[in-house]
Write a sequence for this structure.
């Protein structure tokens, strides 16, 4: 894989996979895979659309329960299984600025009522010919339409450190990244100021699909199930 931000770039309308690795040192395969459609891709960053109804691959506990159905510490110590699932919400516009350790996701309520920005702290994106990949940093931010900012999942980050998935130094770096995003919001910089909340998808785009063999095995993770 190579860093994002340099040619060749994907053309608008291209279907790709937006993937996240499990928080396991040295592992490079995806745990979460979302088929998305490229909206824009250039040196400044990647913008992609997750359409309503998209079939995606996501992690669950080995017995099929949701990750958050167990205590926070167990969530990071337990094994995982992958499950194919349908995205049941409204669509998400996903923006990954080049070189940034985060991406910004725009959410809408039904009827295109804008609900705000969600900042997912994560590794700087890498890509191959058909996908982008990152690793989640657990801590996230929510930015409301009135530009107020709320930190999210601080308790889960603490649990990830206790479980050995991240170090205390990693966690402090992630908090520093969150503070940097807060500065961007206060200055109302890109991508928040770029007007993406007024964007709408091309109605001719088909909903992209997972590859037929989309499942990966690692560290107790099982193959995809219906």
């Amino acid at each position: 894989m190579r860093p994002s931000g340099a040619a060749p770039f994907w053309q608008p309308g291209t279907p790709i996979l937006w993937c996240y690795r499990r928080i396991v040192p040295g592992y490079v395969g995806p745990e979460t895979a979302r088929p998305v459609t490229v909206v824009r891709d250039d040196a400044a960053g990647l913008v992609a659309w997750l359409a309503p109804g998209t079939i995606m691959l996501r992690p669950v506990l080995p017995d099929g329960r949701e990750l958050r159905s167990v205590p926070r510490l167990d969530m990071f110590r337990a094994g995982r299984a992958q499950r194919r699932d349908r995205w049941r919400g409204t669509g998400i516009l996903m923006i990954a600025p080049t070189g940034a350790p985060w991406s910004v996701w725009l959410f809408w309520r039904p009827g295109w009522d804008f609900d705000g920005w969600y900042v997912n702290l994560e590794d700087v994106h890498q890509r191959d010919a058909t996908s982008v990949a990152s690793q989640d940093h657990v801590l996230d931010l929510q930015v409301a339409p009135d530009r107020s900012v709320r930190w999210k999942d601080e308790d889960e980050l603490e649990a990830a450190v206790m479980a050995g998935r991240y170090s205390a130094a990693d966690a402090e770096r992630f908090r520093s990244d969150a503070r940097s995003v807060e500065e961007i919001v206060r200055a109302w910089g890109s991508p928040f100021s770029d007007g993406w909340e007024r964007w709408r998808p091309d109605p001719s785009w088909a909903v992209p699909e997972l590859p037929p063999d989309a499942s990966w095995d690692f560290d107790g993770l099982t193959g995809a199930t219906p």
About this structure: The first strand starts at residue 2 and ends at 3. Residues 2-201 form a domain with the FomD barrel-like fold fold (CATH 2.40.380.10). The chain has one domain: 2-201. The mean pLDDT is 90.
